[in-house]
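New to this. Help decode the following:
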Amino acid sequence: MALVPASPTIHAYRTDAAWTTSHRYRLVKRNGDADFDLCGAGELPFGALAEEVVDCSSTARSLPVQDGGHVRVMCGGAITAGTLCMSDGSAEAITGTDGNYVFGQAIGTYVDGEVGVFAWGPSYLETT
């Protein structure tokens, strides 16, 4: 499937983490300092790392984080268009479940390992 064009809002955020190209399009969270880490399962992300990821462990740098509009996120499982999605333990998009934070809605249908496009809209999912 061809990648759907996205129009994300991208900001630069400072970090000193050991990022690699395998972290591209992964969901990130604030870690309480002026820094960010990968999101865990069901945690509230503030954005997704954009394509230009570099190792910042020896020298803190600013990296591009998508945090609005339509964002690209790596999928950790099959996702159907229109599904509300959350982070899994690998900071990848999966179908949202009750009692977790979701980050947005799938624009298309995606398979595990595909970079999907999502309408950014973080919130808490409560279905009861």
The chain has a mean pLDDT of 89.
